[in-house]
Amino acid sequence: MQYKSLLPVALTTVTAFLAGCSNGSQDLPSNTTEISEMRAQTRTPGSNNQENAPSRIRGQDAMFLKMANELPGFGGYSIGKDGRFKVLLTRGKDTPRLRGLIQRSLVARHSDKRAGGRKINLDPSSFEYQPIAYTIQQIMSWREIVSVKLLDHRVIGGVGYNETNGLITVGLHDLSDQAQVLRQLVALRIPSDVVEFIQTPKLTVSGTLTDYAPRPTPTGYAFRTNGAGGEYCTMGFNAELQGVYGFFSAGHCGTGYNGDQMSINRDAYQPDLGTTSIARLTVNPTLFACENTYGCRSSDAAFYRYHNQTNKSNFTKIAKTADIGYAGYAGSTTVVGNFNVIGRRDYPNLYDPMEKVGYVTGWTGGEFVLTCYDAVSQDDPTTPQIEDQSTKVCSDYYTGATQSGDSGGPVFERFDLSRGQKWRGSRETRVQAHGWAW
After folding, report:
1. Where in 294-437 does DSSP place strands (E)?
2. What is the dihedral of CA 126, 132, 134, 140, to 10 degrees?
3. Of the candidates 200, 161, 203, 172, which has an alpha carbon nearest to the alpha carbon of residue 68?
4. Closest listed residue to residue 106, CA positions, set 65, 69, 137, 67
5. In terms of DSSP bridges, do strands 430-437 and 335-344 run parallel, antiparallel, or are they unpaired?
6. For a FRET experiment, which of 226, 326, 356, 362 has its CA 20 to 30 Å from that of 4?
7. 263 backbone dihedrals φ, ψ, rounded to 5°
8. Which neighbouring-strand residues pair with 135?
9. How many C-beta atoms lie closer than 10 Å to residue 91's C-beta?
């Protein structure tokens, strides 16, 4: 059976897995003077004031800005499926010296000669360069304006930066709304030639891997939180948060929407209610104020504290099933062993392969098609609910199958370390954590 084939991934897990809970981008520069000034100008008065709202420019986009501040004229880069670099340069700034500096920077950054399991070509003569009309500082400032001012559940479902062409990607629920959005961009003084439109992925939140899991529990198995709104979800990554051991999963699993403090102290049962409680939900960060009436969230994430704080024998394990599904098809849900988490994979490149385990569609794989994409999920825009409409900032999307119940499932990179790259069909079980499905 084929399922919806765009899986949103919350990035926070990677940092939380090894270094405690954070928004996954605080160690990176999140803006420039221009963006800071722009954000000050776009604050709105009233109860939804955003004076303390974090920047939407984070993750790989923040890294691009940092490089551009050091290398004026740099506009971002991507790595094609053939392993070649494509570098964006502001028109009029392209010089042999700038190219040389960029080449040295990217060769040093990718010295392991791979990107998400793909071999990459570090020969400077293979680099491709494409001119873009504006500086990346200008583009990112406009990107943030679009995300802050226009992103909602009715028309625009997502906003991101396309590192292959230097355009702001605006995802529309209905492509016939392009003219309406273009008029809004003109009113905001954003050039129309810096924007591209796509059909935004239709996202929903949701509340074999349904069996009783070994104790202590590897992740990837089904669980359910008790109380009203508690949903069936998938255990994400085990983690240590401020000296406490537990696991992460999707924030909406507790009561149906992000940040609901009523979910705090609810018990998590595995695999279902009526069985033994294994953990208690202790952290579900509240939404922060933003232009979206329903609020914004750095990540759809919640932390569950294990009752057993001493036995950590399965702490780095993820359930491994008999077979993987590609191209939007579900994989096996029959558990045959475990993956072993040995590290983390921070910000992905476009086309990087990733895999996930969810209790409904099992072990599935795909490749990233959107990175650092501000998204509003949509079930039925005529009956909006807070759990459906809050903005998730800087999510990544890959083409793996997912279905209701997979929320919270671990997303990871699996590659053959002896070969330095990922091999489809490989028996390699060592993985690097990236995030979890929402």
Report:
1. 296-297, 302-306, 317-321, 335-344, 353-358, 362-376, 391-398, 410-414, 430-437
2. -70
3. 161
4. 67
5. parallel
6. 226
7. -80, -15
8. none
9. 13
Beta bridge partners of 306: 279
Residue listed under structure tokens 């240590």: 240
Residue written as token pair 């349904």: 210
Which of 254, 251, 289 is CA-nearest to residue 269? 254
Q: CB 57: neighbour CB atoms within 10 A?
A: 27
pLDDT band for 184, please (50, 70, 90 cuts): very high
If you compute the radius of gyration of the chain from its CA atoms, what whole number of angstroms results? 21
Q: How many residues does the chain have?
A: 438
- Copy the structure tokens of residue 263: 């979910």
Are the CB atoms for 322 and 346 separated by under 8 Å?
no
Distance separating alpha carbons of residues 270 and 386, to the nearest angstrom = 27
The DSSP letter of residue 427 is -
| Stretch among 292-301, 317-326, 362-371 having the lowest mean pLDDT | 292-301
214 touches 207 (CB < 8 A)? no
Over the range 288-303, which residues count as b (16 or more CB within 10 Å of their CB) and which as e? bbbbbebbbbbbbbbb
In angstroms, the CA 275 to CA 244 distance is 23
**Phi, then psi, of 36 in degrees rounded to 5:** -60, -45
Burial class (CB in 10 A: 0-12, 13-18, 19+), 35: buried
Grade residue 272 by pLDDT with cuts at 50, 70 and 90: confident
| pTM for the whole structure | 0.72
Which phi and psi angles does 58 have, rounded to 5°? -150, -175
Beta strand residue intervals within 11-97, DSSP E: 74-79, 85-90
- How far, in Å, CA of 48 to CA of 252, rounded? 22
Rounded CA gap, 268 and 282, in Å?
Answer: 11
Angle (nearest 5°) at CA 254 between 24 and 342: 40
- Phi then psi dihedrals of residue 312, to 5 deg: -120, 30
Tokens 């569950």 label which residue?
A: 304
Neighbours of 164 (CB within 10 A): 15
β-partners of residue 7 are 398
Q: How far apart are CA 321 and CA 337, in angstroms?
A: 7
For the record, the structure tokens of 284 come out as 């579900």
